[in-house]
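Below is just one:
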Amino acid sequence: MLEQFEKNIGYVFKNKELLKTALTHTSYAYEKKVQSNEKLEFLGDSILEFISSEFLYKNYTKLNEGEMTKVRATVVCEDSLYKIATKHNFSDFLYLGKSEISNKGSKNVAILADSVEAVIAAIFLDGGLEPAKKFIIENLKDEIEIASKNVGQKDYKTVLQEKLQQAGSVHIEYNIIKEEGPDHNKSFTAEVKCDGKQLAIGKGSSKKAAEMEAARKAIELS
């Protein structure tokens, strides 16, 4: 079973137990009295920040510190990690407890995103920094490229907020009102509200993209 996972991620573990721990959710660990992936997740988060920061520093020399920070925050997030987990079918290999299985934990965005960080740490502990770096860069370089191109521009949510707050303080909120499609090709619908009144709705391949599209439409309509 784990051989297929290794094939998916492009790395073969010397220590298979390390990989198993990386895929072990707390619910399973509690039931079976084994170690969960929480400590690996903690380590993986730091490795991910470091590698993405180094990659930005070396490859995007025209970006200033503030812009690099923005790009990193855009890319090193739950949404991006969830996409990686979906791309490599992490959901087929997670060790979940009965409670999480009944709650469809293998589809849970946070659980999948956390497992990616744990796997990054496991690769690092098993094979060192280079294979961990290879996995991170291969999976995030396209996202980094997109984010770097948009970093100097105000996004639609910021523009909408500035526009709506010209006359004073208002309460702006975004809600995901629909999710459709299989895991590898999901579609989200978001609404944007101002003081409880719906301004517009938008669709996108991620929650963030759907919210951005809703904001764009609201700017057009206002």
